Automatic annotation (TrEMBL):
<protein>
    <submittedName>
        <fullName>Betaine-aldehyde dehydrogenase</fullName>
        <ecNumber>1.2.1.8</ecNumber>
    </submittedName>
</protein>
<comment type="similarity">
    <text>Belongs to the aldehyde dehydrogenase family.</text>
</comment>
<dbReference type="InterPro" id="IPR016162">
    <property type="entry name" value="Ald_DH_N"/>
</dbReference>
<feature type="active site">
    <location>
        <position position="249"/>
    </location>
</feature>
<dbReference type="InterPro" id="IPR016160">
    <property type="entry name" value="Ald_DH_CS_CYS"/>
</dbReference>
<dbReference type="InterPro" id="IPR015590">
    <property type="entry name" value="Aldehyde_DH_dom"/>
</dbReference>
<dbReference type="GO" id="GO:0008802">
    <property type="term" value="F:betaine-aldehyde dehydrogenase (NAD+) activity"/>
</dbReference>
<dbReference type="InterPro" id="IPR029510">
    <property type="entry name" value="Ald_DH_CS_GLU"/>
</dbReference>
<dbReference type="InterPro" id="IPR016163">
    <property type="entry name" value="Ald_DH_C"/>
</dbReference>
<dbReference type="InterPro" id="IPR016161">
    <property type="entry name" value="Ald_DH/histidinol_DH"/>
</dbReference>
<keyword id="KW-0560">Oxidoreductase</keyword>
<dbReference type="Pfam" id="PF00171">
    <property type="entry name" value="Aldedh"/>
</dbReference>
<feature type="domain" description="Aldehyde dehydrogenase">
    <location>
        <begin position="15"/>
        <end position="476"/>
    </location>
</feature>
Amino acid sequence: MSRPPERLLWIDNTWVDARQGRRFTTTNPATGEPLAEVAEADASDVDAAVRSARAAQADWAARPGVERGRILAAAAAAVRAHRDELARLECLDGGKPIAETPEADVDSAADCLEYFAGQAGSLQGEYQDVAGGFFYTRPEPLGICGGIGAWNYPLQIAAWKSAPALAAGNAMVFKPAELTPLSALRFAEILAEAGLPAGLFNVVQGAAETGQALTRHPGIDKISLTGEVATGKAVMRDAADTLKAVTMELGGKSPLIVFDDASLDDAVSGALLGNFYTQGEICTNGTRVYVHEAVIEAFIDRVLTRTRGLTIGDPADPDTDIGALISPAHRDHVLEYIRRGEAEGAQRLIGGEAVTVAGCPGGAFVSPAVFRVENDDCVIAREEIFGPVMTILPFRDEAEVIRRANDTPYGLAGGVFTRDLSRGHRVAAALQAGVIWINHYNLTPIEMPFGGMRQSGIGRENSRRALDHYTQLKSVFVASTGVDAPY
Ligand code: NDP
């Protein structure tokens, strides 16, 4: 068997080997086949990336915003031009269906670059007359931002972090998840081809240790992490020593509430999208589906019928709905939750089994599972599983379901299906979560702020608000009178 290709670190717009020469292998989770031998960055490599970023950042920040925007717009076009290639890479490295990746991953990254290309030229401060003069404010870049990504949306995460950072005049050192390093590297090359100067987007691959080298580096001013809650806490602790700003996009166990007046077909579509898209490996998923007792039987019938129709298969096949989980270890983790759910008395209505897919012998496939759960304390209704496991829970009235929906340490997202608009807005206001969908689920237009409340996160990505998290405000007071000193 021929050796898989090598992927080095991307520093200063060039391929650089890791100083220690260390490598790890990234594999296709659908087949277990190695895709590439990847250089693993240690603290000295991270330091080289930070120095390259520091050398480039001041000049980048001094350029007019429209000029930065022009380069980001060229990058958006370049990402679109490489749509098929990037979609395939995301499918191979992440096990995600090729039916999803062109739109959900590549277009999402391009939209983000395009959006922040426009925003780069409109960063504005404020002005106000005050006693003795006036002041104005300057939104200034933070400097060097460290980005640390999860494995479920590797390209999208790289774009969601780097585009606003770059638009605001920062440089970024990015560490993709160890399980999915390939698309961030290709993204970096494409940014360079589009004209992004050297040093502004460096990629250092590796595992948690490499991430720690970023969070502990005194030359990095901010960390933006997408990952689990426990990782968020560890990163915040490490970042505290150098008092770095942090954005935290963390996990969730979000409620999706279906009232008895809802369009059931829409609600079922929302629940399927919000549980089984990307094999359920989505942070915002509405994995606690609360359904009014008057419609729960009909709802379950329709969910089961449509779940039976899903095709589990080779992610590279355009007809596949459910691809491979990210790794055999993650598959076992998901199956263990399914076992615990049954042991606790939850009723498994369909799925939840390891599946062998023809042509994908080493693949980590699990059939989408639906449970009926009577007890909110059941572990599968409380903990994030990050796999295709939907729990359906009955409820009787609005106040009760709001109380139960909010009874979680998480607060990432939530959904409400109802034809009663007043109730939709009332429930949206009452849910303690950062993103709420009324009569839909999991749409994340780039114009809309995205992020969690409570233990699901700090800060916001996307929209103009993201720029607040990649800038710091300087206030400048200008005197209009002489200085009247009392001594
Ligand atoms: P992890 O928390 O395991 O890892 C996230 C990233 O942090 C990886 O790059 C990881 O490295 C790195 N890392 C791990 N430990 C440390 C550390 N101590 N210091 C610095 N970096 C560290 O998350 P997963 O990759 O498993 O992703 C799944 C999680 O991400 C889920 O909880 C999901 O909800 C959440 N998520 C949240 C989103 C949001 O926007 N709110 C979106 C997508 C996912 P490596 O993996 O290479 O070892």
